[in-house]
Amino acid sequence: MRLKPYLLRSMIVSLAALLGAGSVAADEPKQGGTLVMAIQNTPRHLNPAVQSGTATGVPGAQLFAAPLRYDEGWNPQPYLAKSWEVSDDGLSVTLNLVENATFHDGQPITSEDVVFSIDTVKANHPFKTMFAPVEKVDTPDAHTAIIRLSQPHPALMLAMSSQLLPIIPKHVYGDGQDPKTHPQNSQDVVGSGPYKLTEFKRDQHIILERNENYFMEGLPYLDKLVMRIVKDPAARTIALESGELMLSIFEETPRDLARMKKSPNLDVSSDGYSAIGSIVWLAFNTQNGKTADKNVRQAISYAIDRNFILKALMLGTAAEAKTGIHPGSPYYDDSANGYEVDLDKANQILDDAGYAKSSDGMRFGLTVDYGWAEIKQFAEYMKPQLKKIGINVTVRASADFPSWAKRISNHDFDMTMDNVFNWGDPVIGVHRTYSSDNIKKGVIWSNTQQYSNPRVDELMTLAGATYDIEERKKYYAEFQQILSDELPIYWLFAAPYHTVSNKKLGNPPMSIWGGSSPLDRLYLKD
Amino acid sequence: MSFWRVTAKRIGYGFLLLMSVLVLNFVLMSLAPGDIADTIAGEMGGADEQMLAEIRETYGLDQPFHVQLWRYLSRVFVLDLGFSYFYNTPVTTLILEKLPATLLLVFSAQIVAIISGVVLGVMAAKKPNGLFSLSVTLIALFGFAAPVFWTGILLIILFVSIFPLFPIGGIMDVTLAGSWWEHTLDVLHHLMLPMITLASIFVALYSRLARASMLEVLGADYIRTARAKGVPERSVMYRHALRNALAPVVTVAGLQFSAVISGAVVVETVFSWPGLGSLALHSILARDTPTIMGILFCSALVVVVFNILTDMTLRLLDPRIKSG
Predict the structure, then answer these.
(1) Distances (CA, A) of B227 to B122, B128, B210, B218, B239
(2) I need a surface site. Which of A42, A229, A433, B30 has the fewest CB within 10 A?
(3) Could you tell me which chain B residue has the CA closest to the CA of A402?
(4) Nearest residue in A to B276, CA atom
C-alpha cells in the first residue's frame, strides 16, 4: 500500500503551514560551481553513526542520507523515506523508502541497510535514549522498514535526521570490523548522501563532490563543496569579508559577528541552530555545600543580571534562555520565571534563610568552575556580581577540558559554567540533565547536579511517550515551571551561533538542523 | 679529543636526553586529571558509563601506570609510536602527514631570519650610532617584543584585508587545477605570511647579536692589522670580521631551533597551516597521549640533532673550540 507523506495525525496543522510556505516561488537556483565554506574543527572521522557532535555531523550529513529531513518549522520532510506512518497504538513506525536510491558505490539502499544503521547507532552512539525503545525492525520488503517500539516514542522522529541516524551501507560497515574504528569512517567513505568524499585531510579540508546518482532529482546544485578547516575566528572573518570563504557556520564571537553584520556582502543569521539547541548555563551542586539549599540557588539567580550578560558581554548576539529547553523549540515555556535581576530580593532571601553577613559584609564562600575559554568570562562575572549579595566567589580554572570534566562528573564543585546541547527532541538532550536515574559519577553531562524530583521524572516519562504535541507541551510546561522554581541550574542564554554567508550564495542552511542537514540546495548565484 | 669522538659522545647524550624526555612527559601526562575518555565524551556531547569504560579498556587506560609506561617504551624501542586515541590512526602516519609542512615553515623562517638578521646586523655595525643602526634596533626590538599571534593577525589585516596580496591561510588553494609548478608557486604564495611572521621574532635576536658581535670583532687587533696593511674594507668586513662574528649567531640559531618550533605552534594556528603545531595543540587539549608523546619525541629528536649539528658547525667555523 502506498501511503501519502505526512500522515502523522498530529502533524496535519503543520502540514498546512508547510504547503503554504512551499508555494512561494524563490529565485531559480543555478547548477554548478565550487563552494568553499569554513568549518572550525577537524572531525575524528566522518561517520555520524558512531560519533556524535557537529564536527562529524556537518560533513556526515553531506555524505550520508537519513530517513527524514526537517524544514525551518520542525516539520519532518521526506528524504530516504518518501512517506511514513505511525500506527494507532504508537508502537510501530513504518518507513517507505524511495526506490531508486543507491550508495556511492552503486549498490541499492534497502530496508536491510536501515535495520543495520539503527542497530549500529543503538549499539555505538552515546545518546542511548534515541533508540532505546526500539525492539526490532521488520523488513517486509526491500523498501519497507517497520520499526517496532516497546512504548510510543516521539523522539524517534527527530532521531531519524542526518545528524543522528545516517543510513550506512551494511555491505561496507557490516564486514565484522568494529564500526567505531572502521577504516572507511575516514577514507573511502561509502555514503548515500548528496555528496561523495574526494579527500579528507586533517587540519586542512574535506573535499566533497556532487553525487551524480543522488536520489533527489536535480540535486545537489553544487559540483563541489569544499570544507576548509579554519580555527581562528579573526582569520575566518577576514576571509568571509574578502569572499575567499563563502559560508561559515557556528560563528559565535560577538565582536567578529558585530563586524560582519556591517559588511555589505555578507548575510548574518542566527537561524538553523534550534535543533542542536545549545544552552549556556550555571549549574549548581544540589546535594552538597551551601548550594544544596534552594534559597541560595534562588538568591544567586536573582543576583545575576542576565541582561547585562546579553548586552555587555554578548553584544546582543545571544537570545535569553529561561529554561533548559532551547528557546527555538516548540516546547520552550516563555512564562517560566527568568529571575530578573533584583539584588534587594536576593539579599532578603539570604537574610531570611539565616545566612547572616559577618563584619566584612560577606556571608559565605562558593567556587565556580569553567572548562574552556569561551565561558570563562561568565565565571569571572560571578565574582564581583555575587559579592553584592555577600557571597565570596572563587573562580576555579581547569587546565583543560578533561580536568574540568573529571571534577564536575565526580560532583566536586559548588557551581560551574557549562554549555549543553538539546540534540533535537528533549528526550535526547534535555532529560539526561534532570532525570534522577541519570545521576552517574564519572560521566560528564549526566545529571551532575544530582537533582532529583519524582514529579519531574514522571513528567519526563509522560512527555516522552506521546506523539501529541499539545499534550507534550503541557507536560514540558509543568516540567519547566518546577525546574525554574527549584533551580538545579540557572539557564542564561542560547549559544550565539550564527551562519554567515556571502550574498552570492543561495539557500544557506536555515532548517532546524542548520549545517548538519543535507546542503543539497545550496547554490551559487551567477 | 678528536672531532668524531666528541660527536659520538654528543650523540650518546642526545639518546639519553630523548629517553628522559619520553619518561618525563609520560609521567607528566598521567599526573593530569582526566583522560582521553573524557575528551571523547566531550566531543560526542555526552556518553554513558559503559562507553567510557569501553574506551578506557580499548586504550589500556585501565592498566596500572607502570604497565602503561613499560608498554609504551617497549614499543618506542622498535620505533612504533602507537595509535592516536583521537583519530584512530597510527601516530607515525599522523606525524609524517604533518611534518613536511612544519619543516617547510620552520626552515624557511629560520633561513630568512638568519640571513636578514645577519645582513641587517652587519650593516648596522658599520655605523653603530647612525640612523640606520638605530632604526634596525627599533624594528628588531618591535618584532621581538610583539606577540607572534598579534604580528600574524596584523599581517593578515594588512596584506589580506586591506591590500589583498596573499591568501588568508592554509597551505594551498584546493580549488586550483594546474601543473606542478603552479601548485609550487601556490604553496610559496601561502607560505609568505606565516614565514615572515615566524621569522619576525628571530630577526630581532639575530640582528642584535650580529651587530654586537661584529662591533666586538671590528675592535680586535687583527682587524686593525688587516686595515693597516691595506686590505680593502669590503674584504675586512666580510672575510675577516664576519666569519668570526658569525660564531655566536650560529650558536644561538642552533639553540633557538626549539623556540622556532614552539613559535610555529602559534603561527600554524593563526594561519591554519596544517603542520605539527596545530596537531600538537589539538592533541594536548584532547589528552591524546600517544600523539603528544610522538610529537614531543619528534621535536626533541629534531632539537637534539640540530644541537649536534650546531656543535659540529662551530668546530668547523672556529678551530679554537677543541675540548668537549
Answers:
(1) 17, 19, 21, 10, 12
(2) B30
(3) B34
(4) A203
